[in-house]
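<tokenise_the_fold>
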Amino acid sequence: MKYINRELSWLSFNARVLQEAADPQVPLLERLRFLGIFSSNLDEFFRVRVATLKRMKQLGKQARLPFGESPKRILTEIFDQVIRLQNQFNTIYAGIQHELEEEKIHIINEKQLTEEQGRFVRNYFHAHVRAALVPLMVDKIEEFPYLRDHSIYLAVLLSDSQRQHKSRYALIEIPTDVVSRFLVLPSHDENAYVILLDDVIRYCLADIFYIFPHDTYQAWTVKLTRDAEIDLHDDFNATMIEKLEKGLKQRRRGRPVRFIYDATIDAGMLNYFLERMKLKKDSENLVAGARYHNFKDFIHFPTLGKHHLRYPPMQPVPHPDLQPNRSIFQVLDQKDVLLHYPYHSFDYFIDFLREAAIDPKVQEIKITLYRLAKNSKVANALINAVRNGKKVVVVMELQARFDEEHNIYWSDRLREEGATVLFGIQGLKVHCKVCLIKRKEHRETKWYANISTGNFNETTAQIYTDHCLFTSDKRITHELDQMFTFFVNTYKVPTYKYLLLSPLTMRSRIEQLIRREIAHAQKGKPAAINLKLNNLADKQMIDLLHEAALAGVKMRLMVRGACSFAPVSQRVSAHLEIRSLVDRFLEHSRLMIFWNGGDPEVYLTSADWMIRNLDGRVEMAMPILDSAIRDELIQYFELQWRDNVKARHITAQQDNPYVRNDLPPFRVQEALRDWLASRAAVVSAKSDGVQAAPKLEPQV
């Protein structure tokens, strides 16, 4: 059996993102956005995964990755892959530029400006850019300037054409945090012209360095990527927030893991920079790139009125059970409700919180928060609940990577308002997404819950596909209440009959569910497992799935990101197929379906099948007890599996071939909205509720 290295598999996922940028069927400006997503993904990959491998490499021969590989060998393969992907990226970008010109959109540089455009650029520079610049004359500074992660810089060479004055070196941070990366130039024809902020500054270098006797200015873009690991020291006198704030400051000065520079940069200047930064010339950290870096900014490239070059806006489908001006609690007294983001609106969850905040019968709101939106409606609704006299308990995960500062801010705000803010369990990230509301009804206490596969974040809910379930089922809400009690009293470990909790029971319970399918297959009974995950990299689980395939269990896996498992023999591939779906929305939901002899068990979960999720985090998988919703999720998976436009096969070769067959083209992200709308129409026409989906047979 062959395991695929997690990091190399992740690069294969990012190659699927690059496929979207290359796909001529994708609207042109969306293809530019996918280049930005690819670039942003790669930055985070270096900051986290490559940085981790470099730390492991320093341990020498004693360091081994989970599947026994050498960190040094994997790093070599990573850099080979990254160079290959970057070459593809540059080719794709050049092609997109050509197609943009056919649409009369021109991305021009400072040397292509007309005289009139030049005057506009110079006026814009003095009005909006110059005050934000801090030019540094690096050849006169004793300590080389600190280069910020995420930022890009112009390395400027000042020279004298008469050679009477010695050349000078300067460094300018491009202020994309306060000035847009893109400047749209005035146009008197049908053409649109866009210049990057980098080139606006290049055009005006003489306006910056006019006090020097030099008359020639050249500038190249450079960028430094740093290790993003946060070291939380065991200072028992410091609070968790104090430790994290100290760690965030240290992250900003993390070790360099990648230095990217324009390949055309002056050799003498590059050598000078490397020497001052104490980077070796032959280091694998050095990456020669193209003219522009930080392509993540292209996610926000201006539309320029060319709306046909974007995906059309998608209006959410109204959920038939959640009518305006009707209490959500009254609905949940009668039935469970399932939402599918982004096809349904996240506003239903906000309404759930807002109703709880003003309902006199509501006594308490408990919620786990992992990643909040910048201007979070969720946090504001919780603050409103506190002001209305409700007890609000927030389990805030401060160590949600790259969202730590947001979470610290909202923790402080919530505590200032009077909410009880807990920081989870020491040594374990709380990654499950649960909201639980306590309501006093007829002298009895009743609990209402919302369980989601994604974060309580109204921004990502518009671009991530997730499921969220509203329920008042006592079997579930009672155990969720026990879970929140565990957050307060970690020495009291509850016993769960229905929920699967990691690191307590999830791994062992999933293993039991897989072994039950193996037992059915060995007895000649129908046996099947359908999984939808973001990542699959846990060796123990992979081995068990491999055993199940050999036993004859029919398995279909949808794995969006890293997947360390692929069928490598005919015996396995006869019973196992793995696909990945990359399209307009980020596939984020996690779903497990075990055939169970024809009476399927269906689970929604926050957990991927990775060591960190199953053993090192608080995660939760919830059984779907409502038969109609269970069948709806089975049908949802069947629709996902039908995709033969955007789905790819996961193979041992990691070459991402598209799923193609003789059936009519079916693109599930386009079809799901229509499917949900048709279901809503059926419900509206029937007074007896949602029509059950037909029984489905296990397939591969």
